[in-house]
Design brief:
Strand content: 15-25%
Shape: globular
Largest sheet: 3 strands, antiparallel
Helix content: 55-70%
Number of strands: 3
Length: about 200
Amino acid sequence: MADVIRELHTYVSANCDAKSDVVIPLLSQATLTFLMEPNAAALEADMVGVMEKHGLSKGVVKDLCKHLIVIWQNAIRECWDESRLSTTAKACGLSAGVCAALAKHWKKCSKLLVSNLVGKSIDGNDVVDMDWSFGVTAASSDCTDAGKTFLQMRLTLLDRATDSTRNVFLELSLEQFYHFLAQLEGCKTAIDILSGSD
C-alpha cells in the first residue's frame, strides 16, 4: 500500500503539487462516492468541475482519480483504518492537508463502502471454508504497531456462476475481529430466529 501512496505523491509532485491540498480532497471524496454508488456521469462531472476550477488537464485529473481508486481498493483489501492511512500517507511524503483529508474521507466512508462490497460479494459467493490464526507484530517501521495483536483469515469462496473456489485473505486488528465476530453472532441469531431453531 505504501508503494501506491508513494506513486500518488510522485505524480502529484510532478503535475499539481501547488494545488494538491485542494484538488486531492475533492477527488478523494468523488472517488469514494463513485466506489459506493458507481455512477460514471457523476464522477465525470466532479472531474470536470476540478479541471475547470483549478486549471488541470483531463489526463492529470483522470490519473489522480485512478491513483485514489487504487488506494481505496487496497485500503479495503488490507482493512486499513484512517489513522494507518494518514500515518502511511505522511511517511510517503504527502502534505498534512492531503493526509488529513484522506483520513477524514476514509473514516466517513469506509464502513459503508466495505459493507456494500461485502453485500455484493455474498450475493455471488458461498463461504465454503474459513481458517484463521492470531499473531503479534514483533517489529514494524511504525513503532506503535509493535506488540499489537492481529488475526489473519483465509476464506474459501465458491463462485456459483463458475462452480470454482478461490481463496480470499484478510488481516484484521483485534478490534476489527471482535466487531466481525459480533456481526457473525448477530447473523447466527437472525438465522436461528428465521429458521425457528432453538
